[in-house]
Amino acid sequence: MIGHVDPFIGSEPTDLTKQTGLAAAWWWPKPQIGNTHPGATYPLGMVSACAYSGAYPTGYGRYDLSLEGVPSTLHDRPTASGFTHFQQSGTGAIRKYYNYFRVTPMIEPLDALGRLWDLTDETAEPGFYSATLDSGVRAELTVGPKSAVHRYTFPEDPRARVVIDFSLGGLSIPYGATIPLRAHLETLEPGVAQGEIVVEGTPIAVYIECDTPQWRQMLFYDRRLMPGGKRLDFDHIRPTTLRPFGLMWAGPSRAGETIELRIGFSLRGVEQARRNLREDCGDGPARFEHRREKTKRQWRKQLKSASVKTSSTKRQTVFSTALYHSLIKPCLAISESPFWPSDGPFAFDISTMWDIYRTQLPLLTALMPERAVELANALLTICEEEGNFPIGYRMARGSDRFSRQGSALAHTFLADLCQLGLPGIDWEWALVHMSDDLRRTYGEEFLLHGETHPISHTLDLAFGYWATAKVARRVGDTALAEQFEGLAERWVNAFDPTSGLLKDSTYYEGTRYNYSFRLLHDMASRVELSGGAEAFVAQLDQFFGFDAPAVAQPGNRPSVAEMQAGYALGRFEGLNNEPDMEAPWAYHYAGRPDRTAEVVHNVLLQQFGTGRGGLPGNDDSGGLSSWNVWASLGLFPVAGQNIFLVNAPLFSSATIAVGDESFRVRTKNFVEPVHGGPVQYVQSMQLNGAPLERSWISGSELHRGGELLVELGPEPSDWATTNLPPSRPGPAREPSVSPTLGAKP
């Protein structure tokens, strides 16, 4: 799998084969770019490293800030002013607190610091990135969980230098830069230095080793060298007083000479940064290949957790890269919290919880259950220390916790872990915080009036009560569970009974249509609210654009009128954005899995591709890529409900690791799909040798491992048209199965 990963996918504007048929009717309101970067990463590690151009939103690339349509070009070719750390992964506007400690290899005077050099010969693989600057310097980067290692190969020049700029981060677009509030740095001995900056309330410490015994080591301030200086301290930096400052090694280079730079990072001071560097890289010089190989082994292990069989190199690359992008974030950094003194799980870059809770967190739970538990405990600690569960959590102190995007999203994640019975969480502790959190922010209005606006929060909170009731039943608090199950029924207050759609309200990055078809815990009642199965399917058909004409997508800098006309379509966004990523599976609850197959087939074949323009929109920290992984397997998690909907897979066979077990999806009569080609429909299924007449399996069945055999055909069948997925306003129950169903073969 690792050999098929292309980290460049998604780093430039969407460039897919022209959409045909159903897919041509979908409308894309959000930026048509994946916003990924090809830099070196470690699975769920706290450090990344990549070329830095200052472009939006990761610091890598050529594009300006864009919130809709085709992004504007900031640079006409790949460029970099150096190489930075802590990049985002595929987000939209979360941009300001990263790209610190820019490292610049130069053969120019220090006055040239900050200029852009053209990039050529870029290469990338999981855990490794390299490029050549037009100065002739070749750069190679790799990372560990809490470290980065740089290796630079210089041409012959008397003025070679490696410069680390402590003074600036963020982006080089208007209002995108971030400067330290306080900073200090000091040289300890030749080739060794340490320092710390405080940015947006977060201290980031570094311990640095540079293998340049023959070069001079100097501090600089305001682009002027400080020969003999050992330490710089800044007690208070203001934007008006900021001058570039940092650390430099300089001397003559021989052609082909390599300089290695190792940096350990910590949010808890320079001593811990030093320990982290030792833990990641060991002792002594020339550690680059050692660290690169260790990171590559770790990526190889994680990417082996899902495998597919296909004759299409293109589809193999799309799937492998989607799995790779799914495992970059969040950043898990045990015992690194800068905000409270206790050791234990800590996480940041939970940057798009409103996207990842439905697809990526269930994927982490399946592939890496111990890390999912670690993340859950980190969320619980954040709630205990700061007073509420975050909707997004970045490596910065402040009130920007993204509450308008959603409510009670951590509850969904915790409910899945609870229902799976994964060890390592104190559920009585969790219940206290889950219960208290439901009363904060929009929760008070929900309790007082039965609904809250934005109306999507009514659905969030109702489901949050349902999810918390699961935990209450686990710990034996039946009274609380019954109370919360009653409050969970308030989801119905969000809907207009005359239309069967959500009420008039404000909606985050969508319309009532994008939010009206989410998967609720009582879908049977939801379908009836639309007038029954036939009427519900008709609404879905209209939403997905069956028999609708093709639409024109927004271009560069679309007008307000153009965007309003697009939103007025009330159309599926084709995974250009994620509020409606669950909607294709809503057909299952009306007995029409054939429609799900048609929509998902068109998304997978027409909305994802190879090359830098291979994503339809922001990857959103792996939320989009995780959707691709699940859908390609013919599975989709109904987050928080401990069930997986099943349908036609994209590959003839596939295997996914679930903890220490494996779950295989195998097909009969499979035909390799093609762009714009015919859809394959499920004719029958068997789970571990027994007939499966329902279009779902429980999370427990998946996690026990086994085999799902899917018989496919060219026409819809009556499979799972009457045996619908569960709707459970009250206590959930395991499915009733035959004695062999669910048993391992």
UniProtKB/TrEMBL annotation:
It holds the Pfam family Glyco_hydro_92N. It comes from Agreia bicolorata. Residues 272-713 form the Glycosyl hydrolase family domain. The lineage of its organism: Bacteria, Bacillati, Actinomycetota, Actinomycetes, Micrococcales. Keywords: Hydrolase. This is Glycoside hydrolase. InterPro entries: 6-hairpin_glycosidase_sf, GH-type_carb-bd, GH92_N, Glyco_hydro_92, PNGase. It comes from the Bacteria. Residues 4-168 form the Glycosyl hydrolase family 92 N-terminal domain. Residues 713-745 are annotated as: Disordered. GO terms for molecular function: hydrolase activity.
